[in-house]
Amino acid sequence: MKPIHVGLLGIGTVGGGTFTVLERNCEEISRRAGRAIAITVVADKDLTRANSIVNGRAKVIDDALAVVNDPNVDIVVELIGGTGIAKELMLKAIANGKHVVTANKALLAKHGNEIFAAAQKKGVMVAFEAAVAGGVPIIKSLREGLAANRIEWIAGIINGTSNFILSEMREKGASFDDVLKQAQQLGYAEADPTFDIEGIDAAHKLTIMAAIGFGIPMQFEAAYTEGISKLTREDIQYAEELGYRIKLLGIAKRKANGIELRVHPTLIPTKRLIANVEGVMNAILVKGDAVGQTMFYGAGAGAEPTASAVVADLIDVARTMTVDPEHRVPHLAFQPDKLSDIAILPMGEVETSYYLRLRVQDKPGVLADITRVLADLGISIDAMVQKEPSEGEALVNIIMLTHRTIEKNVNAAISKIEALPVVASKVTRIRLEELDK
Ligand code: HSE
């Protein structure tokens, strides 16, 4: 059978890995796909870098548009990233009737609805396993492996950089700023680390998982996003003492009145498997009504782990490109005319538990004042500790864990507690999930 010709847009870390894996495993890959898959043309602005990787084994040009317009290219692999030129190129490739494989989570989270509609119209595939959790086959699992289930919730550590920072802060007692510098030196965090540390990268990935898990459109703008930059080693330490670990979790949960879609630092019991995912690794828990909890673990970034996902998509596309489009797995797992319009819940309506840390004066009646505020708002306390004040300090830290409650009640309680004269500073609030059912 005629080989599949692939045009690669961008040969940086993941593109280089894709080139290497496709070549190294070409025999296994063609045994699986039923035909050879070869990168025939590569477009990259940095021709020197591209030529040093390709080394004469494919054509190298600096014009990405020429690749998407090339009649000999069957599949375009988009590894440029971002939402600018990558979007134009992807839409052009689709308009030209080419299948697309991409790792671009930002583009899909923000413009996926438009891209999938265009692909649907042209009868082409847009495959994106590499967009979420690098080499972990979570898209395939959610879309196909778990297709019998009504997905109840998804909770994942889906940003390796922030997980590395949290692991180092906990293990070494280091400050956020120091570990961030280390992450940058190791090449984990970008020079501008905002997307990683402020939860934006995780929200892109969560948006994609929620769409295919629940059969809803991409709604990145509705996701609540809070990063790890304000976390202190003190809170990480207190959480540990209480039997919890703080992780940046992306959580998508189906509720009777809508979908919760949120990324934030979260206390999870240390005894949970996912609490022990450390360093740059990723892990995703998926709860289905039939299967129960399943967990997917692996490298969320890196050249070959991410290439593993890109190449798997290439094989998938190669196998099904001759299939009638109506009989392929739909882009978002559900038939496009059956997507649900169930709303994303505003953060005030989210239900979870809370870790609250208060700096208060150490004198009679203080706890009574605080617990009265909580009781008046129907917030039940699960555990509470008062830390010894440091030598010569008049203020003490009180840590409270609450039972599950609605976030707007906690917001109201925090405002009232902060207004109490005995409370010395802003309340630290970190959400808590037991992840037990
Ligand atoms: N920057 C991401 C992370 C990897 O730190 O997990 C690419 O999605």
Summarize the structure.
The chain is α/β, with parallel strands linked by helices and 437 residues long.
SSE map:
Elements: E1 4-9, H1 13-24, H2 26-33, E2 37-43, H3 47-54, E3 59-61, H4 64-68, E4 75-78, H5 85-95, E5 99-102, H6 105-122, E6 126-127, H7 138-145, E7 151-157, H8 160-172, H9 176-185, H10 194-197, H11 200-214, E8 224-225, H12 233-241, E9 244-255, E10 258-269, E11 281-288, E12 292-299, H13 303-320, E13 351-361, H14 366-376, E14 381-386, E15 395-402, E16 405-406, H15 407-418, E17 428-432
Bound molecules: L-homoserine.
Oligomer: single chain
Approximate shape: elongated
CATH class bucket of the largest domain: Alpha Beta
The H-level CATH homologous superfamily of the largest domain, spelled out, is NAD(P)-binding Rossmann-like Domain
Small-molecule binders: L-homoserine
Overall mean pLDDT score?
A: 96
The count of domains is 3
Radius of gyration: 24 Å
Helix percentage range? 25-40%
Structural class: alpha/beta
Query: Number of DSSP helices?
Result: 15
Task: Work out the strand percent.
Answer: 15-25%
What CATH architecture label of the largest domain applies?
3-Layer(aba) Sandwich
User: What would the CATH topology of the largest domain be?
Assistant: Rossmann fold
- Ranges with pLDDT <50 over ≥5 residues? none
* E-strand count: 17
**Termini separation:** 49 Å
How many strands, which pairing sense, and closed or not: the largest β-sheet? 11 strands, mixed
